[in-house]
Task: inverse folding
C-alpha cells in the first residue's frame, strides 16, 4: 500500500524535486510540453542571452552620440538595432547616469527585469531584502554593494510596476578615451546596468568583475 | 491584493545576500523555468494572471520559499484553474484525460520569444494627464491583482513621462480582457513616500530623504488630480 | 517597523480557523507563557520592548509560526540582548555564569499581576487636540517600534475620545524611557481607510463601505491637523 | 561526538519542545525563574481568570442602570468594583452595542486582549486571518462567525493599538426580563464580549455555548 500511494518517492529526491518531476512527466505525457522546446527555452536564457548584450548597447552609446540619443529617446528600437528584442524587453526605457543623477532599478512587486539585454535576474534581485529596501533605503543598499555616491548626487530608483523595462546607462569611466567599443563593453558589468554598481575602471583586475 | 509579495518599504529582511549567482542552483529550478514558459505558450493565460496566481500563495510561504517555488505554485494553480490538467492528475503525476492543446515545438520557440508580448494598445481617449502635472495615487485596496504597490497609495507626485496606452493589468489578470489604460512614469519625492523627520528618529528611513526620488509606472485609473 | 506583524488590511490568509480553543495546545506553549511572564517580572525590560523583540522575528517565520513561538523568539532575544543569559548559555541550556537577579517567588505573583503596569502618566503640556477635531495620521515609516499601523498612516479621521497621557511606546521600546504622550481614540470612516468604489470592482473591500468605522488609539506624535 | 553535541535530543521531543525545555532548565538553574511562580502564573490564566468575569460585569450592567453608567464612563473602576483588575486590564474601556451600533475588537499589531475580564485570547483572535481582516472586511468576518447584522446598523471596529483594553457590552437578549443576574451572566458568551457574537438567547441549548 505505501508503495502504491507513493510511487515515485523512492529515488532519493527531495519533496520539491519529486513534485517538479511529476509535473514534468504529466505535462509531457499529455502532450502539453515538448521536451526539446523546454531545452531550447532553458538554453536560450542560461547560455545565449545575458548581460553581454546590454554591455554592447552601453558601449555603443558611449562611442556613438547619435546612437546614445536614439537609446535615450526610443530604447526599444535602439536596442533592436543591435539585435536584442522580445520577451521582457517589449517596451524598453534607458535611464542615464550623469554627474548629477544616479539611477537604480528594482521590481518591488515581483522581479521584472529586461531579459533581452541582461538575461535572467540574479538571485539577490529577486529576493525580499532588495525588493523591500531599494525604494526605502537606496543609499544603504548602494553602500552594501560598495557604491558610495556624493550626497549631492540625486539617486533615482525605478520601480518596474508595468511592462516598461529599465536599462541603466552607466557613466563612461575615466581614462577610456583610447579603448575600442569592444574593450569598453568589457567594462560594463551587469550590476552597473541595474544601477547597483558603476562601470569598471580600465585598471581593474578583469577577474574581479562579475 | 495586499499580500507579502508587495515588498516595497518592508523591514526586517536584513542585508542583501549576494552569494548566489547561478540562475538555476539545482535542476528543479531550471525545469520550473522551462515548464512555466512552455506552458505559457499554450495561450491559456496571460502574464498578469501568472503574477496574480503567484501572489495568491500563502503569505508566509511566499516569504519562506524561493523564487521558483513561487513560479511552481503559480503554474500548478493556473494549470488546474484553467482546466488544462485536473487536480487528480496534478496530485498523481499520471495523465487521465487527453488534452486538445498541442505543445509548442522547439523550432517555434525563437520566434515566439523574439516577438514577446507587447502590451501597448491603441486607445480612443486622450491621456488625462500631462508631463509635469501633480497627481495623487488613489487609496484603494483590491483583493484582486493590482500593480499599484501599497507604498505609493495615497501619495502625491509629478507625471514624469507618458508611455502610451497599455493593457490594464488589474482587469487583464481577472478577466483576461485587454482594456487600454494610459501609462505614466510618476516621480515621488522620497519624503512624500516615507515621511520627513518623523515622530521617532531612531532607525527611521527618513534620514535618507535628501536628493532621492522614486519613479513608479502608474496606470491612469490609479491616479487623480 | 513595517513588518509582517502589522496585519491590518492584509489579504490572502483565508477564512478564520475557529477550531482551536485550548489556550495551550501542548505543554511547551504553557511553559513559554509562564517563562515569559516570570522573566518579565525580573524588571529588565518593558512590554514595548517585548513587542519590538517579537516584531523583529524574520518576517516569513513570523507568519509561519504560532503565537507562542513569537513569544519564545522575543524572550530568548531579550534575555541575551539584556545580558540576563549569554548566547552560549542559551545555546547549550547550561548555566555558565551566576546571575545577580532573583526570581520572583510564587507568593508575590498575585500582587504583581493585580497591580499590572499602568501606563497613564502626568503630563506638563495640555492635549493638542480636542474631541471632534479632524486630524491626519502622519506618514512615517520607522524601522523601530511604533503602534501606528500602516493602514492608518496618511489617513484622516476625527478625534473620538481623549484617554489622558500615557507612556509613548515608540520611545519606551527603544530607550526604556517613559515619556508621556497624549493618547486619543481616533475614528476613521471605512472608505477613507480602504478606498471607495476603487479602480477595479472585483473583490474590493470597498464594497463593505457603508456604515462602517474603525477606531484606533493614536498617540499625539502620530497625528497632525 | 554526536552525543556530546546533542546532549538533550534523545528523548523523543520535537525541536521546539527541546528548545523550551533547555530554556526552562537554564532559567531555573540560574535562579531567574521560580518553578512555583511559573505554576502560579499558568494556573491563574488557565483556570482562574476567564470570560466568566466579563460575563458578570455585563450581566450587572444589564440589570443595574447606575452600574452600566459607571461602566461606560469609567470602565477600569467599574470592573475593579467587581474584583477584576491588573495585568492587561489597567486601562479599560467599555463599548456598548445598541440598536444602531455594533462593536467588535481586534489587535492588528499583536494580540492585545483584556485579560482580567476575558482571560487569555482564543487562538483565532491571535491568528493572522482575524488580525488582517477584522479592520478591512468586518462584515465578512462577522458572517463567518454567524452574525448577520442589519446593513443599517453601524459596525465599529476597535483596534487595540495602545494599552487601552476594550470590552464589548453586548445587547441584552429579548425575553430575559425574568432572569436573575446570575442567569443573565450565563447568556454572556466570550465572543459576544469581543463583538463577534451576540449574547445567547435564553432558549438556546446551553451546551452549544462556548
Result:
Amino acid at each position: 500500500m505505501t508503495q502504491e500511494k507513493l510511487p515515485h518517492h523512492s529515488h532519493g529526491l527531495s519533496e520539491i524535486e519529486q513534485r517538479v518531476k511529476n509535473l514534468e512527466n504529466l505535462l509531457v505525457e499529455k502532450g502539453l510540453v515538448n521536451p526539446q522546446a523546454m531545452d531550447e527555452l532553458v538554453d536560450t536564457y542560461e547560455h545565449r542571452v545575458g548581460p553581454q548584450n546590454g554591455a554592447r548597447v552601453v558601449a555603443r552609446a558611449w562611442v556613438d552620440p547619435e546612437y546614445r540619443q536614439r537609446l535615450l529617446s526610443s530604447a526599444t528600437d535602439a536596442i533592436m538595432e543591435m539585435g536584442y528584442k522580445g520577451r521582457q524587453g517589449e517596451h524598453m526605457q534607458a535611464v542615464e547616469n550623469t554627474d548629477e543623477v544616479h539611477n537604480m532599478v528594482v521590481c518591488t512587486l515581483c522581479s521584472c527585469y529586461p531579459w533581452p539585454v541582461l538575461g535572467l535576474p540574479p538571485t539577490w534581485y529577486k529576493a525580499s531584502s532588495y525588493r523591500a529596501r531599494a525604494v526605502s533605503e537606496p543609499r544603504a543598499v548602494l553602500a552594501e554593494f560598495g557604491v558610495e555616491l556624493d550626497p549631492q548626487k540625486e539617486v533615482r530608483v525605478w520601480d518596474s510596476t508595468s511592462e516598461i523595462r529599465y536599462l541603466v546607462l552607466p557613466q563612461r569611466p575615466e581614462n577610456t578615451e583610447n579603448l575600442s567599443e569592444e574593450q569598453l563593453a568589457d567594462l560594463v558589468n551587469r550590476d552597473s546596468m541595474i544601477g547597483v554598481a558603476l562601470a569598471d575602471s580600465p585598471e581593474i583586475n578583469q577577474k574581479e568583475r562579475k | 491584493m495586499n499580500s507579502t509579495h508587495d515588498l516595497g518599504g518592508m523591514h526586517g529582511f536584513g542585508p542583501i545576500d549576494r552569494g548566489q549567482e547561478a540562475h538555476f542552483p539545482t535542476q528543479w529550478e531550471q525545469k520550473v523555468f522551462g515548464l512555466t514558459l512552455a506552458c505559457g505558450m499554450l495561450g491559456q493565460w496571460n502574464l498578469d494572471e501568472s503574477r496574480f496566481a503567484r501572489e495568491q500563495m500563502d503569505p508566509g510561504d511566499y516569504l519562506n520559499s524561493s523564487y521558483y517555488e513561487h513560479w511552481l505554485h503559480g503554474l500548478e494553480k493556473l494549470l488546474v484553474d484553467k482546466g488544462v490538467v485536473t487536480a487528480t492528475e496534478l496530485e498523481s503525476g499520471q495523465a487521465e484525460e487527453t488534452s486538445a492543446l498541442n505543445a509548442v515545438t522547439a523550432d517555434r520557440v525563437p520566434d515566439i520569444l523574439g516577438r514577446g508580448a507587447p502590451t501597448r494598445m491603441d486607445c480612443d481617449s486622450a491621456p488625462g494627464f500631462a508631463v509635469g502635472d501633480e497627481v495623487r495615487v488613489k487609496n484603494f485596496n483590491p483583493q484582486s491583482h493590482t500593480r499599484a504597490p501599497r507604498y505609493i497609495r495615497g501619495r502625491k507626485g509629478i507625471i514624469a513621462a507618458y508611455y502610451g496606452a497599455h493593457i490594464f493589468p488589474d482587469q487583464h489578470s481577472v478577466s483576461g480582457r485587454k482594456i487600454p489604460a494610459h501609462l505614466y512614469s510618476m516621480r515621488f519625492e522620497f519624503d512624500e513616500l516615507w515621511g520627513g523627520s518623523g515622530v521617532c528618529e531612531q532607525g527611521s528611513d527618513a534620514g535618507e530623504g535628501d536628493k532621492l526620488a522614486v519613479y513608479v509606472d502608474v496606470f491612469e485609473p490609479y491616479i487623480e488630480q
